[in-house]
């Protein structure tokens, strides 16, 4: 297993930077899914069986039987990557929890020092109290930096919006604002009395036809009408 992990790590380092970043983000997502195996029943093996042929495939076209033979190797490689990422994910979460517990203990000690300084007289306060407080504050700052470093190692969960997405969202917001204004402008008032008005004849507003248009001849119209009557009488039931 260790040799396989080292070989896969070397092959991943040879990938281009964008491909390596996408693969790392995908393995991190699958590791988070596998971490909830008790709920979703999707362990590392099941996830690798589904995503293995999608992530790893041949560059040249192969026969269907050869592709089926590659599924086992593809699943094994992707399962190894998911398991390794899951170990890193659990270790990072464990370290973050430990840092949070240590920060709570240091914060509790700082609160005790502040309570002791408020309740005791200034003349009876030991000079070591100030030194201890300074040490605890430095420890709290160090723990906070370590926790921030571990959080930065985890990929961000929220998608980063591009400039096109931001521009489209602005356009949607402007369209929504204009639509709301138009709705308010043309809202109906049912309490107001009705207003009656006369509409102009619609044919007067019809655009004129093309110039020098010849009207159909009267004889042609009569022949067309006669032909249509003959067709109707031909198809009419007897």
From TrEMBL:
<dbReference type="GO" id="GO:0051015">
    <property type="term" value="F:actin filament binding"/>
</dbReference>
<dbReference type="GO" id="GO:0000146">
    <property type="term" value="F:microfilament motor activity"/>
</dbReference>
<dbReference type="InterPro" id="IPR008936">
    <property type="entry name" value="Rho_GTPase_activation_prot"/>
</dbReference>
<keyword id="KW-0963">Cytoplasm</keyword>
<dbReference type="GO" id="GO:0005096">
    <property type="term" value="F:GTPase activator activity"/>
</dbReference>
<dbReference type="InterPro" id="IPR000198">
    <property type="entry name" value="RhoGAP_dom"/>
</dbReference>
<dbReference type="GO" id="GO:0005884">
    <property type="term" value="C:actin filament"/>
</dbReference>
<dbReference type="GO" id="GO:0005737">
    <property type="term" value="C:cytoplasm"/>
</dbReference>
<protein>
    <submittedName>
        <fullName>Rho-GAP domain-containing protein</fullName>
    </submittedName>
</protein>
<dbReference type="GO" id="GO:0035556">
    <property type="term" value="P:intracellular signal transduction"/>
</dbReference>
<feature type="domain" description="Rho-GAP">
    <location>
        <begin position="1"/>
        <end position="89"/>
    </location>
</feature>
<dbReference type="Pfam" id="PF00620">
    <property type="entry name" value="RhoGAP"/>
</dbReference>
<dbReference type="InterPro" id="IPR046987">
    <property type="entry name" value="Myo9"/>
</dbReference>
């Amino acid at each position: 297993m260790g040799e396989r992990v080292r070989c896969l790590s070397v092959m991943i380092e040879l990938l281009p930077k964008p491909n390596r970043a996408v693969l790392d983000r995908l393995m991190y997502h699958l590791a988070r899914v596998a971490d909830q195996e008790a709920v979703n029943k999707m362990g590392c093996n099941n996830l690798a069986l589904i995503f293995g042929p999608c992530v790893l495939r041949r560059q040249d076209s192969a026969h269907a039987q050869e592709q089926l033979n590659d599924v086992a190797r593809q699943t094994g490689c992707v399962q190894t990557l998911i398991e390794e990422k899951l170990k890193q994910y659990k270790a990072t979460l464990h370290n973050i929890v430990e840092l949070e517990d240590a920060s709570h203990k240091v914060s509790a000690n700082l609160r005790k020092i502040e309570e002791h300084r408020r309740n005791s007289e200034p003349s009876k306060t030991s000079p070591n109290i100030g030194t201890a407080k300074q040490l605890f504050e430095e420890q709290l700052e160090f723990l906070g930096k370590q926790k921030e470093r571990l959080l930065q190692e985890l990929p961000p969960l929220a998608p980063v919006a591009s400039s096109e997405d931001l521009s489209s969202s602005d356009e949607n917001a402007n369209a929504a604002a204009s639509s709301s204004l138009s709705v308010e402008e043309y809202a109906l008032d049912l309490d107001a009395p009705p207003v009656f008005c006369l509409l102009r004849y619609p044919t007067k507003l019809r655009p004129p036809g093309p110039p020098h248009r010849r009207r159909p001849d009267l004889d042609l119209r009569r022949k067309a009408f006669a032909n249509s009557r003959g067709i109707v009488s031909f198809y009419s039931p007897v």
